[in-house]
Amino acid sequence: MIISNPIRLPFWQIKTLQSLLHLTAVAWVGYVFYLALSGQILGDPVQYLIDFTGLGAINLLFMSLAISPSARIFKFSQIMILRRPLGVYAAVYGLLHFAVFVAFELQFEMALVFSEVIDRPYITVGFSALVILSVLLISSLNRVKRALGRRWQQIHNWVYVAAPLVLLHFIWSLKTLDLASWLYIMSFVVLIIFRIKNIQKIIKK
Amino acid sequence: MLIKTPSSSASSENQVTEEAVFNSRRSLLKQIGFIGAGALLSKTTNAGPFDWFKSESKEMFSRSALSFTKSPSDAQIQTPEVQALNYNNFFEFGTSKSDPATHAQSFKVDPWTIVIDGLVEKPIELGYEDLFTMFDLQERIYRLRCVEAWSMVIPWIGFSLSGLINKAKPLSSAKYVAFETLYDPEQMRGQRSRFVGGGVDYPYVEGLRLDEAMHPLTTLSVGMYGKTLSPQNGAPIRLVMPWKYGFKSIKSLVKIKLVDKMPPTSWNRLAPDEYGFYANVNPNVSHPRWSQARERRIVGSGLLAQDRIDTKLFNGYDEVAELYRGMDLAKFY
Questions:
Q1: How far apart are the first and last CA of chain A?
Q2: Which of A28, A62, A173, B19 is most deeply packed, by most CB within 10 A?
Q3: Is B199 close to A115, i.e. CB distance below 8 A?
Q4: Rounded to an integer, what distance in angstroms lies between the CA atom of residue B258 and that of residue B23?
Q5: Phi then psi dihedrals of residue B228, to 5 deg
Q6: Are B150 and A43 in contact (CB under 8 A)?
Q7: Which helix (H) or strand (E) holds A155?
Q8: Half-sphere exposure of residue B32, counting CA atoms within 13 Å on the CB side?
Q9: Which of B43, B48, B87 lies nearest to residue A43, judging by beta carbons?
């Protein structure tokens, strides 16, 4: 599994990659919200935004989890600088997902927001994951990170709780399992396999 | 002969404009899907990784204008046609809301055969033309409430199912009516693969009690918005049950069979604790995973045009309440 030659890109290339990530994550969701607000989404814009932000959050979270195994396997340590932005955008997309649900699906009926979060198991699960991701988001600020010191890693190990919750939330929300949901389940299993030692260590502690 | 085939010069203004807008939006969405394919983000616009290659040159299904009696004016705000055409649950063409519009455009509806048989004196077989000529067509503007807690208001064109059943002369032993959608895996990609079709056992089947089927509101629809149905909406003929959740309104019918026992229904078979045989719209009985108390009415294409309203018992069609007198609606959901 270990590739002998480390991959090294010129600094500007890896920086460009990082900038592209920022640009894509922001511009894409901005564009989709623009389409929805201006009535250019065929069908139901609310459902479209919920799906887009929700799936976006899962994709970004899974990509962030794929970074460190990839860096190890391909000896490509430079891509580690992409891990934080991927995680940050995963949390931001998750928050947007919840915001769309509250603002456009439930249209700020706060009583219903509370009862849905409590009574609907798949929403409870999704909301728990969002709470974890929000904590991780806040603790990703440089100042907070420094203040946390060694505890930062402990806190960020909670991603191993958040990721399966996110997946469960998505699967549970569907009427039936379709091809996409199976692909997500498989990707999750692969991600876990590549991090199994890491996870065992955390559990032993 | 009620189907008009207008020449291109006779096309009405709205017909032309809408399809152009429709197509340009379609390509726009396709582009979004293209960017996202690598990131697996494309679920809502593309179901499979190579779909955009295939659908590039696909022609839209062509719908013909119908003659019908206009509905007496209705105060309800109707759902824009483009939304009713592009936001569909029709798992035979894929599980995402945009799949039916994407993958059903080459669906063949003519020739078509629909059979009415079972416990009847005179079984009937109808061909494509008969669907439009056998009965006078009426416009019926009905609310459609999906079990997923969204709703639309749609101007259907069709006739009462009771007229057709009466023609077949039901025997006194007939107590229920069983319906069946076309089974054609070659045309319906969801029937070819369990992954695409969401694990439903095809053909899709539905059922009604005979008294429900004979109710004047119960409609067989052959058109909407002035034209014949599009495939994603269940062409060429579908059931419309305005007081029941949308999944009861079975699409692309090939079989109506009168029977003496309660027939199986597809969603009930798949998840019996979530979807019952009756599936009457009822704000007091929650779906196990979400509330049915309120609904989002889709009445405009802008994000802010949404309208959240209380869901009404029997979707507001109180005249059907007598059919269920004395029944525990929480038990018979």
A1: 27
A2: A62
A3: no
A4: 42
A5: -60, 160
A6: no
A7: helix A151-156
A8: 26
A9: B87
Residues of B in contact with A121 (CB under 8 A): 289
For residue B248 the two structure tokens come to 């009861």
Q: Testing the interface with A: which of B30, B43, B90, B98 to mutate, by most A Cβ within 10 A?
A: B43
- Give Cα B113 distance to the centre of its chain: 18
Touching B: A residues 133-162, CB under 8 Å: none
Cβ–Cβ of B83/A59 closer than 8 Å?
A: no
Per-residue pLDDT of chain B (333 residues; tens, 9 = 90+): 556 555 544 544 444 444 544 455 545 444 444 444 444 443 344 333 334 444 444 688 999 999 999 988 767 889 999 999 999 999 999 998 999 999 999 999 999 999 999 999 999 999 999 999 999 999 999 999 999 999 999 999 999 999 999 999 999 999 999 999 999 999 999 999 888 888 899 999 999 999 999 999 999 999 999 999 999 999 999 999 999 999 999 999 999 999 999 999 999 999 999 999 999 999 999 998 888 999 999 988 777 776 889 999 999 999 999 999 999 999 999
Rounded Cα distance, B285 and B330, in Å: 6
Q: Are B256 and B115 in contact (CB under 8 A)?
A: yes
A177: distance to nearest CA of chain B, Å?
Answer: 6
Answer yes or no: are the C-beta atoms of A91 and A133 closer than 8 Å. Answer: yes
In B65-183, which ranges are E strands?
65-66, 113-118, 124-127, 138-145, 150-160, 176-181
Judged by a CB distance cut-off of 8 A, whether residue B200 touches chain A is yes
Integer Cα distance of B325 and B333 in angstroms: 14
Q: Closest Cα to residue B238, out of B149, B159, B293, B294?
A: B159
